[in-house]
Amino acid sequence: MKCNEAYTRRVFLRNTGLFAATAGITLAASGLPKFATPAAAKSYDKWPYTKLNMDEVANIAYENYMDLFCTSTVLKGIFTPLANSVGSPYKTFPVESMKWAHGGIAGWGTVCGTLVGASTAIGFITGDTDTTEAMSNDLMFYYANTVLPGFKPAKGKWAEIKNTTKAGTPMCHISVGRWMQEEGVAFLSNERGERCARVAASIAAKTAEMLNAWDAAGGKYTPVNTPLANVMTNGITSQNNCTDCHGKDVPKPIMAAGKKD
Q1: For residue 48, what is the DSSP state?
Q2: Euclidean distance between CA atoms 22 and 247, whole angstroms
Q3: At what angle do helices 113-126 and 190-216 cross, to 10 degrees?
Q4: Do the Cβ atoms of 211 and 52 come closer than 8 Å?
Q5: Residue 257 and residue 215: Cα distance in Å, rounded?
Q6: CA distances (Å), 42 to each of 6, 133, 208, in order?
Q7: What distance in Å separates the CA atoms of residue 180 and residue 145, rounded to the nearest whole number?
């Protein structure tokens, strides 16, 4: 799922058309699904940005986790240094307003809240929908395929932990559950809180690294992974770890013309 070109919705539409033609389907322009059509406004007012210190971002996120939880603490880590160097609008943004996304959105265990916070920051800072989607997509891949947490404080603030794990997915409940099984602890434990605080710090730092690279390139971003690749590969918005939850009962999307793949 690597790509060497800037991937945009227009590229997606072009590739979708090629995919449809290969499958023997003729799609009228009016028949394209709404989610595949280009956004009405690609760019919007972006917030001023100055280079971030990744260590500072990570430490701020880590220190604030138990008060703000995953989403808001990532925003805190990124926005606090920018509030100091730039001022408004970072200084007035209510990071606490994003606490609802903790635990995979109100505790439902869906996408990890660190990714919600990171993508929110990217959106405000880049001011471009295609760039935000591409960077968020790369961050999802990073989260799923990296052994986390990478951040390690000199001394654990709430507990000491032994293990790091690769989630294989951006889903909160699988990511946390895999680590809990490896560590041998319960969800409502200081160890689990410590682990998630370190993951938040890790994702905040990675986001700062990506934003620094984007800024250094004059506001240009080259994706590492292809956005919406899973849609084209699997015929539905999806992940590649289906059997983790579904076992052998993975739902098969209707690929085209009422026929099942």
Answers
A1: P
A2: 30
A3: 20
A4: yes
A5: 45
A6: 14, 11, 23
A7: 18
How many Cα neighbours within 13 Å face the side chain of 170?
Answer: 19
- pTM for the model stands at 0.81
For the chain, the 3-state helix, strand and coil shares in percent, each to the nearest 5, are 55, 5, 40
Q: Tell me what the mean pLDDT of segment 253-259 comes to.
A: 56
Average pLDDT, the chain: 84
C-alpha–C-alpha distance, residues 160 and 146, integer Å: 21
Contact, 227 vs 247, CB < 8 A? no
Average pLDDT of 196-217? 98
HSE-CB at 144 with a 13 A cutoff on CA atoms is 15
Single-letter residue type at 73: T
Neighbouring-strand partners of residue 89: none
Q: DSSP class of residue 80?
A: H
Nearest C-alpha neighbor of 150 from the set 134, 132, 167: 167
Task: Show the tokens assigned to 252.
Answer: 């098969």
Condensed to tens digits (0 to 9), the pLDDT of residues 78-120 reads: 999 999 999 999 999 999 999 999 999 999 999 999 999 999 9
Rounded to whole angstroms, how far apart are CA atoms 179 and 181? Answer: 5
Counting Cβ atoms within 10 Å, is residue 181 exposed (0-12), middle (13-18) or buried (19+)? exposed
Phi and psi for 232 in degrees, rounded to 5?
-70, -35
Residue 149 and residue 166 in contact, taking contact as beta carbons nearer than 8 Å: no
Q: What's the pLDDT tens digit per position in 15-56? A: 444 333 333 333 333 343 544 444 455 677 899 999 999 999
Answer whether 122's CB lies under 8 Å from 138's CB. no
